[in-house]
Here is the input.
Amino acid sequence: MRFMFEKIIRFVSHYQPYGKMKKPVAVAGNSGPKVRSDCEIVLEIRSEGGIIIELISKVKVLYGESIKNLIAEVLDFFGVKHAVVKINDSGALPFVIAARMESAVKQLISIDLEYLPGFLQENSYSTTRDRFRFSRLYLPGNTPGLMINAGLHSADGIILDLEDSVAPEKKDEARILVRNALRQINFYGAERMVRINQGERGLEDLHSVIPQNVNLVLLPKCESADYIKQVEEEIAGIKKKFNSKNQVFLMPIIESALGIENSYMIARGSENVVAIAIGLEDYTTDLGVSRTIEGSESFYARTRLVVAAKAAGIQPIDSVFSDVADMEALKQTVVISKSLGFEGMGCIHPRQIAVIKQGFAPDGTEIEKSKKIILAFEKAKLKGLGVVALGSKMIDPPVVARAQKNIDLAVRLNLLSSGWINEIPPDEK
Amino acid sequence: MPTKTVINAAGRMVPLEINGQPVVPFKGVGKYKPEGRKYSPSIPTCSDYPDDGNKVVSSLEEALRKCGLSDGMTISTHHHLRDGDLVSNKVFELASAMGVKDLIWFPSASFPCNDAVIKYLDDGTINRIEGSMNGPLGRYVSEGRMKGTAVLRSHGGRVQAIQDGEVIIDIAVLAAPTADSFGNAKGTGGTSACGVLGYAKADYLYASKVIVVTDNLVDFPCFPMEIEGNYVDYVVVVDKIGIPEKIVSGTTLITRSPDRLLIAELTASFLEKSGILKDGVTIQAGAGGTSLAIAVFVHQVLKNKGWKSKFGFGGSTKYMVKMLEEGQMGFILDAQAFDLDSVKSVENNPNHIPYSVFNAYNYHSKGNLTSMMDIMILGATEVDLNFNGNVVTHSDGYLLHGIGGWQNCLHARNVILPIPLFRDRIPVIVDEVTTLCGPGELIDVIITERGIAINPLRQDLIESIKGSDLPIKTLRELKDEAEKICGIPQKPQFEDEIVAAVKWVDGTVIDVVRKIKTN
Here is the structure.
């Protein structure tokens, strides 16, 4: 695979290749018996002796040369002329190796250059405000092995997480890895999402990810509309700098009592806020209570958040379900979640996606009932009747509206053909 | 000394002689039909054996001595004790201590525990292995460190080689979980139960001398007689023939990898939408995590539709046993039991029938069980653009696996290979397989997480899924997709030296493995 220097973001500042070194040896990436599709790079920059590369790799016979060439290319890009590089590789893809190498270099020298692998054309799509966000798959931002096939599992969105799933000492290298992943991994149409860190670090994260055509940014532990505005300003600045036109939606995650109290204002914090999610682990901690399966402790917060979202005309999204082995319990949770008004849920394992999607989609009985209501409504309209009746039951206008919503949803999910009403034989209408 | 080579019918350069014996180059599927009579062992006389039927001798060493163990002999063992086998290594430890040289080890398969024989290859006790070579043993052979040339055969090919007299077993050392003093033996009972002994049949019928080694001696008669005592020369009783937890896995588990589950789901969906999966279907799937997941999904389809599989062919697992017990499978025919549930089932369920590879896979049988199977789920390390498959080497050229029953199973009606498009960074679909183990004409469908490729020879299958939502692609498209992600791999470099020959099911040489070039 050929890497291209597509563009250089942020020009060299205080670049001193042989000036003060931050520390003698840098280590980036991961290795170990359970690590796959990653590599660990140990870098020592020297003042002479050229580039010496020591490679241990399970794919050495097949990719040894290309790995060494890539390492040499990245070092050359950053102006490193003399170094010893030790790589312990477990089948890392080129964008991972490049990210690890860049991270190691940046631990040793201050440099603002970015070594950017080519941007995959398949990833240049944008998304819309009202697209479905039933299922969003969380991926830890420093674990490349989980990223490569993530798009195959048909989640509505894929979240590369820079926040809680990344160890504090790995935050910098995760940022570079996620940036490269956004450029090189095919997301197969899933909404491309990143969860940034809180506070200042989060705003810095934006500089790495916004230029990579991110569709949506998740803002953890959001407590105020002011923070939304701050994020928007930062994004606007970055977009201007790179002259990028892609629309970036926001999904604040409410994870505290204060956040819940401010949820409506947060939901209306910007026109780019398309959904708000609730994070129950932190919320229950904030309340000083335990999280239970029945969830009575978070009932108020969840309904409050749903109401705030609906009032603001955006999607309310439920917390993740953490027992990845228990699909039955997940199914039950989705039923409750849907009944409260949520329109989606986070996933922490690909096997949860289908269960969640199915749970939030209207089921067969719902669709049939809605069809009957719409047919009755159309019939009444045709006859010029003011009152709609189904059997012996009177049907109020909001019931008709809800049925229409269900029908629209079913059509958008390909559960029902858009011309369904014309496909019904006249005598059954 | 370089031997003469020719291009065989599969386009591979193969020698005309291996280990000093002439061999026949591959001629095409079903083309080679040797004539004459089957090999037979020399005639024994019952009066040479104890009148009281007690053939127990004091030790394995004594038995080997009585069998006349000497330089250059061929010693066979079976692999039913899998990674818990304590018997086969012991044979070579004793042989080494006795100063015997240049033995040929002819196992039905080898496991990681057999890496211990490397020291007997090093000290000259063993000249070569004719069987499967896994892990470190494969590496050893690939680096050209084994004295003789390895010969890789399928399970059925092993029986064929015995019947053709291509391999003459001097001594078969057969571990048996239960045996009597006459030599009758079975795979169940005792602390080392492995379920069935299907791989030992050709060995005890054709070997010049047969030693049964057991840790569970029972009164005559040991029944059912999977090994018949009238073919057995000596019985040896030891403390332990195996390590129970390594003989059968307590439980086989379906894969937890979401990517493998996706492949399994796609496979089940293909089987259903193509109409291959139907009432009365016959099916075989292995014990790998993906195959087990496919079995679970298939079971679900059968259940939902109210269908029943006529029979399944094992390696049996608890998932197959579940189908049998819940009524979605009529019979399990079983050559090896992979987990405790299967061992229990074969012992107790009359519809779970031991069935040796002697019957199932053998090229010289009058009919072939695998050609009666509708669905055959197999794996591969590589597949090339002509659907040719490799199971013995990896793309880096190293020998890593045995053939097992893979080649034999290719004769099923629908051969389906569910495989990931790349493993770590290594693409599975290549221009040309590193080692040819199975001709593409026998491989029908490749199912990867990124798409399904159907062999153009199977127009009927291509027709059957027209209009479905299955992601059908060509092998070239899949290969390009993998290389776009992984990069184009370099080719491994080989020396001229041949380290292993790969036999086709009929005994002809389909390909060879050459020594890895190490700088």
The first strand of chain B starts at residue 5 and ends at 7.
